[in-house]
UniProtKB/TrEMBL annotation:
Residues 29-140 form the Cystatin domain. Belongs to the cystatin family. Residues 1-22 form the signal peptide. This is Egg-white cystatin. The keyword Nucleus does not apply. The lineage of its organism: Eukaryota, Metazoa, Chordata, Craniata, Vertebrata.
Length: 140
């Protein structure tokens, strides 16, 4: 069961629909053809955060994880923008039950609580419906 998620999330579980204009990162991209995109691109970073929300929603970890590095990003125009992201995520000091905003969550400094996972996310954004669909989340 794939669930659609509103576009803007302020905490790991509190999301509201927000009207944003998502333009393709590069105007020469042809539909259906995945191309590399800069990992510092704001839309790429936002897509990575959506993948992290999805991971946190499905994990049974006590703590929230947050993206630490986007290693590789591709984007494909297919009825919207589909991002294919290789992301490293790390455990933060924020506990899930506190519903913290990830922006204010720092990474664990305590050695025995530190954890890093390598993830592959597919994040599909359809701007005109203000929907985000995350069909693939693989972390190890």
């Amino acid at each position: 069961s794939h669930s659609f998620m509103p576009l803007m999330c302020f905490t790991w579980m509190f999301c509201v629909v927000s009207v944003t204009n998502v333009t393709p990162p590069h105007s020469t991209i042809r539909p259906g053809f995945p191309v590399p995109v800069n990992t510092n691109n704001p839309e790429v970073r936002r897509a990575a955060r959506f993948g992290v929300y999805r991971y946190n929603n499905s994990s049974n970890d006590l703590f929230l994880f947050k993206e630490s590095q986007i290693k590789k990003a591709m984007v494909q125009i297919v009825r919207g923008l589909k991002y294919m992201l290789h992301v490293e995520i790390k455990r933060t000091v924020c506990e899930k039950r506190d519903h913290s905003s990830l922006d204010s969550c720092h990474f664990q400094r305590e050695k025995n609580l530190q954890r890093m996972l390598r993830c592959y996310f597919e994040v599909w954004i359809t701007p005109w419906t203000h929907k985000v669909h995350i069909p693939v989340v693989h972390c190890h």
